[in-house]
Amino acid sequence: MTERVTKRGIRDFILICILAMLVGTFVPVGVSAATTYSRTLNSCIVKAKKGRIVLAYNPSQTGVPVYARTSPKSQQYGVLGFGDAVVVNTKKLKMNKKYAWLPVYMDNLKDAKGKKATAYVRMGQLKLLSLNAKKYSSNRIIDKAIKTGMKYLGTPFILGGLSMTDGIDCSGFVGKCFQMAGRNLASWYHTITLEGVSRQIFWHNTNTPLTKEELNKMKVGDLLFYLDKDTSGAIGHVGIYIGKGMMLNASGHYGYVYPTGGVCIKRVQYGQRYMVLCKRIIGF
Fold it and tell me: Long-range contacts for 232-240 (Cβ within 8 Å, ≥24 apart)?
């Protein structure tokens, strides 16, 4: 009886191993059977053809690794934290094809041809949305300021920096975007001077998500201010609202380089930071 049970156990074990090997052949390289998730991205392709930019952002507190290739064994470029966003490389997508990995631009890196490098994140970990890149705003200056800022995604954060290519800080970035769009906001750039050239739309309590009513009050081009120490201290950070709960900024709070820092795109609420003040530039 014992011998029969042993032989049956060995036979069952061998069958399980064979089945596991067969299942593994249908799983994309670098993705485990438990985490495989794929979908078509037809809507992203259609939107891109209409002049929209497709963004992918992390909606959770769990970090999302960004890899050089479609494998977790490849070089890791960084980890997207809560609210961090990247631009989807829709040129890598084809209609009706299912993808387990999402191609995104690494704006601070170049490929062998000298163009923006492409990196990859696993599908299912990020949420997608799109913005009208042809016209972010009906206001000519605001539209040009945002388009200008988007050209410099990937520039590193340097406190006190004023170079759109070599390094810049948050207030310098906001000031330069509008200056290059034809509106000089101040003689020198600091969160204090930017507060001085804008009018308050609303003050938001710290540590709480924005309400739907507050989001509806916000307009593309508004300046968004944050406290220096997340939930305490003086105003210490500023970004430009670009719509759909997203902002363009030069960030140095959670890192100095793209995609978590430097000139990058984030949700209005990101990491442990809550926007506390929404202001509109006087005259807009």
Answer: 232/206, 235/191, 235/192, 235/195, 235/276, 235/277, 236/191, 237/170, 237/191, 237/273, 238/170, 238/171, 238/174, 238/191, 238/194, 239/170, 239/174, 239/266, 240/145, 240/146, 240/149, 240/174, 240/177
| Domain at 106, CATH number | 2.30.30.40
Q: Are residues 217 and 174 in the same domain?
A: yes
167 forms beta bridges with 163
What is d(CA 259, CA 46) in angstroms, rounded to the nearest whole number? 25
Report d(CA 153, CA 260) in Å as an integer.
11
DSSP one-letter string for 150-190: HTTTTPPB-TT-EETTTEE-HHHHHHHHHHHTT----SS--
User: Residues 172-211, buried b or exposed e (16+ Cβ, 10 A)?
Assistant: bbbbbbbbbbebebbeebbbeebbebbeebeebeeeeebe
Same-domain status, 90 and 128 = yes
Looking at per-residue pLDDT, the higher value among 26 and 226 belongs to: 226
274 and 146 housed in the same domain? yes
**Residue-wise pLDDT tens digits, 232-243:** 889 999 999 999
Query: Residue 26 falls within a domain, yes or no?
Result: no
Residues 232-260: what's their mean pLDDT?
95
Tens of pLDDT, residue by residue over 176-207, are 999 999 999 999 999 999 999 999 999 998 78
Question: In degrees rounded to 5, what are phi and psi of residue 136?
Answer: -70, -35
Cα separations in angstroms, 144 against 141, 180, 190, 221, 278:
5, 8, 21, 10, 20
Structural domains of the chain, count:
2
Cβ count within 10 A of residue 215: 14
Measured distance CA(143)–CA(221) in Å, rounded:
8
